[in-house]
Amino acid sequence: MLRTGDEYRESLRDGREIHMDGERIEDVTTHPAFKPIVDIRARIYDMAHEDATRGVMSVWLWATGLPVIVVPLFIAVSMILFIGLARVVAETGMPAVVPAMIPAGFVLSAVGGANLGPTGLVAAAYSLPWAGDFLVFMSAPLANGLRLATATSAGRRLGSALVLALAIGLTVSCGFLLYLAHRHGGVNLHPQYFKQFAAMPADLIARQLATPSEISISGWAWTSAGAIVMGLLFLARERLGWRPLHPVGFPVSMGWVMDVVWFSVFLAWAAKMIVLRSGGPGLYARSRPLFLGLALGQIVAGGLWLMVDCFTGTVGNRIPMLY
């Protein structure tokens, strides 16, 4: 059973040693740099227990065809993935991260496609649009936005700006996607997003109806082993402060994103170590604008050339970000 928001906050008050800019943080649940992230994660935990939100999601999933006994498992796995990925992105600063599994895949492995039935298979398969491609999801940017609001005293203005940006981005992206597909034909556009992803739910349903999967004992065993290893890594992080290895490295190493960004992460780590050892926290604080400028420069340059292509009608160019 998922814990509550208060139980999550209490779990963080366990004597762990956390330092930032040379200062030891006694309570991460109240420190301005961490409180926004802690609060949003606690709120997500509470929403899973509140009748208003729990009932809506549970009834909706049941109405789509998932067996009522499977609904709590599906919601629990989804929440764990959303919260875990948001923590990885917000805590490590990685641009994106993808999990090695998705809720639909976990349920099929844990329960077996044969036990879901045809309607359950359809419901699980068509959860892929909202719980399948975790490369882009809103939990992480919202957590970072709340942290930025606390650091800059922007408060509600930044919160309103985030909501407005989400609304504009969703409206424009969906509208433009439909426009492109209508004008050029979806089959003539990006094969991954307009062909492969679009066919995945139907392909999954067809495979499972033809050859339903059974309960995967090995899947349960490997998932349990991974949970134990992750728990031991977090325990080592809390009890062995001198340990240089971060437990986040274990789950993120399984995703394809790390195949692309690992060397950049290594360079950032090496630069940080050199700066801290040579100049301490003071030099580290003074050097941060330089590295933020490097990231901002790539974003601005990429956005500029996208605008150039847009107004000149140029096609075929590609800006390497993650792949």
Low-confidence stretches: none
Helical region count?
13
Radius of gyration computed on alpha carbons: 22 Å
User: How would you classify the helix and strand content by structural class?
Assistant: mainly alpha
The helix content, as a percent range, equals over 70%
Biggest beta-sheet profile: 2 strands, antiparallel
Mean pLDDT figure = 82
What is the N-to-C order of secondary-structure elements (H for helix, E for strand)?
A: HEEHHHHHHHHHHHH
- How are the strands of the biggest sheet laid out side by side? 1-2
Walk me through this protein's architecture:
Helices cover 71% and strands 2% of the residues. The chain is mostly helical. The chain has two domains: 219 residues, no CATH class; 68 residues. The model has no long low-confidence stretch (mean pLDDT 82).
